[in-house]
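Field log, afternoon session.

UNIT: design team B
ACTIVITY: writing a sequence onto a fixed backbone
BACKBONE:
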């Protein structure tokens, strides 16, 4: 159903991801969900296959692929398991890209190769208990102490935070008597071996249950000065620029979940008989399936067009937000309709759509809620009018 004319490499990557997902994720995804546990060995295996360095240059052991290839692979992984996909999306879009774009050569040399190979897993710690949509309201404080920074505060909702090896942590480097707003935030490369690092509460979630989402608490976490990423006071800008890319990944995740739900609904509608015929013969079911497929196709077409624009070097802030908004609302719509097509069987764990439904909801929340995406789109619209 994809409208994108794929290159040979893109088709190969898509097939590699699909084969891996069917062989090594699909058979286990329900168990991981039930047990709320993700075996980190799967992430290491993904690294061996190149899925954790898809956008990194070959000089850092990455595959140096175009963005559409990356998103095609992510869609395949998400169709198999949304929890595995969020690890892949965060790792490829946020910490590795922050290091590549804003890190020093020493920092890139130290972290990117093991991250591209999946030997080290990345995470991104921006949110705090009182700083969500308003991410500039950071409280985590970094204070310079000789050749180190001492970090004190709590980061919340950190995806992969319980086993991550390299975490991009945003913290304030301005002082309480001279606050500089979003210009008072810096990014630090934090590793769990640093003194004062503590993994706190693991969230008990509705969906995405296998992905560990944890709090990190720092009580005077001692971070060497050389672990400051880029320039002091630029951390908020680095985080926002990286989220522009991250949103494309979350859109691909949403499309993968929605596609899996549509596939399941198509199969079920062909098998399930009521009133003496398969339910897919009823026009009411046909209309649902047609709406589901149309929305998925539209979301994917916008995503691939935006990815191509990004690779041409164009700014994709507005279209990236549109992708995330459209794809996540599509995922919620499609999974809701899929449950409806399954009737009572859609509401129980014996069939897969119940999990897709639970997993879809998060795509409307993280990396900027749907409300925040609409704000970004409106802001960009107004800015483009002013430039006319
Ligand atoms: C499973 C999961 C994984 C996550 N992973 C990460 C991660 O790896 N790293 C990380 O840093 N964060 C992560 N997050 C955090 C996530 O990005 C935030 O939850 C999200 O940004 C929303 O923030 P909040 O939860 O504080 O909600 P709030 O900001 O409190 O929002 C509550 C409601 O108010 C609305 N709202 C807020 N401001 C406005 C406004 N100006 N106009 C209109 N409506 C508004 C929101 O849209 C929402 O509906 C994760 C969250 C979850 C649940």
């Amino acid at each position: 159903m994809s409208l994108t004319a794929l290159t040979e490499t893109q088709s190969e990557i898509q097939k590699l991801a699909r084969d891996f997902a069917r062989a090594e994720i699909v058979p286990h995804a329900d168990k991981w969900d039930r047990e709320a546990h993700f075996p980190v060995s799967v992430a290491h295996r993904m690294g061996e296959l190149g899925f954790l360095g898809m956008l990194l240059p070959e000089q850092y052991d990455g595959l140096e692929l175009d963005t559409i290839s990356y998103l095609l692979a992510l869609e395949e992984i998400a169709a198999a398991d949304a929890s595995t996909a969020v690890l892949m999306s965060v790792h490829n879009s946020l910490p590795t890209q922050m290091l590549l774009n804003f890190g020093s050569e020493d920092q890139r040399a130290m972290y990117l190769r093991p991250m591209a190979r999946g030997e080290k897993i990345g995470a991104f710690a921006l949110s705090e208990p009182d700083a969500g949509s308003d991410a500039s309201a950071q409280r985590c404080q970094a204070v310079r102490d000789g050749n180190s920074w001492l970090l004190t505060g709590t980061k919340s909702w950190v995806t992969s935070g319980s086993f991550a090896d390299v975490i991009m942590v945003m913290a304030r480097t301005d002082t309480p008597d001279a606050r500089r707003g979003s210009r008072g935030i810096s990014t630090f490369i934090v590793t769990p071996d640093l003194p004062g690092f503590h993994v706190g509460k693991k969230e008990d979630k509705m969906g995405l249950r296998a992905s560990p989402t944890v709090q990190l608490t720092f009580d005077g976490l001692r971070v060497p000065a050389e672990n400051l990423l880029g320039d002091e006071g630029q951390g908020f800008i680095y985080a926002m620029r990286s989220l522009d890319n991250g949103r494309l990944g979350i859109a691909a995740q949403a499309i993968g979940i929605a596609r899996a739900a549509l596939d399941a609904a198509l199969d079920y509608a062909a098998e399930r008989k009521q009133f003496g015929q398969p339910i897919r013969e009823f026009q009411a079911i046909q209309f649902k399936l047609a709406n589901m497929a149309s929305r998925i196709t539209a979301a994917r077409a916008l995503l691939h067009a935006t990815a191509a624009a990004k690779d041409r070097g164009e700014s994709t802030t507005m279209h990236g937000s549109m992708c995330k908004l459209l794809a996540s609302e599509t995922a919620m719509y499609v999974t809701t309709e899929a449950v409806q097509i399954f009737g009572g069987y859609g509401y129980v764990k014996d069939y897969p759509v119940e999990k897709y439904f639970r997993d879809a909801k998060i795509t409307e929340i993280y990396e900027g809620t749907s409300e925040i995406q609409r704000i970004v789109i409106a802001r960009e619209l107004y800015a483009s009018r002013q430039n006319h």
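LOG NOTE: The mean pLDDT is 97.
NEXT ACTIVITY: expression trials, pending approval
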